[in-house]
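Changelog note: in this version the structure field was regenerated for every chain. One regenerated record is shown below for reference.
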Amino acid sequence: MGIYTISFIGEEIDSFQQKLERQNIALGQHLHWQPYTPDQNYDCLVLCNETSFQELENLSRQTKKILWIKGYENFSHTIPENVEIFPHNTPLQLLGQKLIRTINEFNDNYYLAVKTTTNAIMIYDAQGKPLWANTGFATLFGITFEEFCQRYKTFHEASVLENPEQVVEQLRQNQIVQYQSWFINPDNRKIWLQTSITPVCNSFGALERFVVVETDITALKETEEKLAKKTIDLENQKILFEEERQRSDDLLHNILPKEVALKLKKGKVKPKLYKSVSIMFIDFKGFSKLCRIYDSLEIVEQLDYLIASFDDIIGKHFLEKIKTIGDAYMCVGGLPMKNNSHQVNIILAALEIQQFLWEFNKPRILNNQHTWDCRIGIHTGEVIAGVVGKKKFAYDIWGDAVNIAARMEQSGVINAINISATTYELVKDYFDCIPRGKIEAKNIGQIEMYFVTGLKPEYSTDSTQAFPNEKFLDILRKM
């Protein structure tokens, strides 16, 4: 039941059809009579006029079979294999029989193709009524054509599309329609289909029937799904890898300054000299005694909370935490990124830490609990900074300035900020300070020291003198 396309050159199709009908020559129902259009392929072309050899060759390349009715009986050129010449006086009955044989040959080949193909092929009439299906249809869908016709009277009923009428309208406009869909077969397996619907129109362009070819693309879809799953798995692995790398980087940045960590990932970091930095030491009063009197785990948990709070405070003031040793806390301003405001930043951080501890201790005093009191010491000077060791990297600083800062803390008093004369000279215009005179520092000698009581009133937001106002922040930004 193939669709055989015939066209004519030199005679009208209707005239030739009428001649065949008068001779009672029936060519069959499944023909597609088409007016000749250049560059279009045909199954058979009936050539009813004289033509050149070049034109004949061109026609033979776009047509499976040519019947040349008015050709010369003696032709000087080699005739293409798919061209058969008939004298102009050949009886119409003979031509009709030749057309029938040509059509039968086509149908034999067609039936062989549709019988051996694994695709499902169906033919519907213009109204969508099923006319025929090949054996591949029953193989693919698990039902016979007869059973299908009992269930579905039209293409519209059988279609999985939301709007099958739109498809039929496209077919009426001589457009090929293609889409993908799926169904569950009798073995409860999901089968994917590639559907191609080809319209067959008469010589006036009206839709006569359409051919539906269903191709099982399940294997292709399953391969695509596996590839998609592998792609998703790879993407998930990439995300996990990035998350793990980020955690590793975060951990490294918690141990080392970010700039130092980035350099360390590229190779060894060389020690670096910093001409001017400010160093702060903080030490809690009586920590060892607290551990003996109270539950050690509880004390360490409180210490962890306080240290974490200090980390947040110094981060706001562009300081770098160096380390903690027991209950001692050490940080520095002015490295690894150099700046001109480190001596101010570090005292602002010290004042905020004092205020934080005061707020933390207030409810503890009311509840008659132990308080967390500390000494703070600050000095400004020259240091060498770098990473030491091959394992458990540690970023550290060395130099006399470090030792003097430690002595500032040790020579201080509880809940006070003790600074050296060097630092005082750099910040005296912004902070209220009380001179202490020269005080003996272990292994160093006498050092002039000052207590910082707070920001000068004109630079403070409130009576605590711990927090800078906008006027002072403007000065700080210009440093």
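Spot check on this record: The radius of gyration is 48 Å. The chain has three domains: 4-116, 120-216, 261-477.
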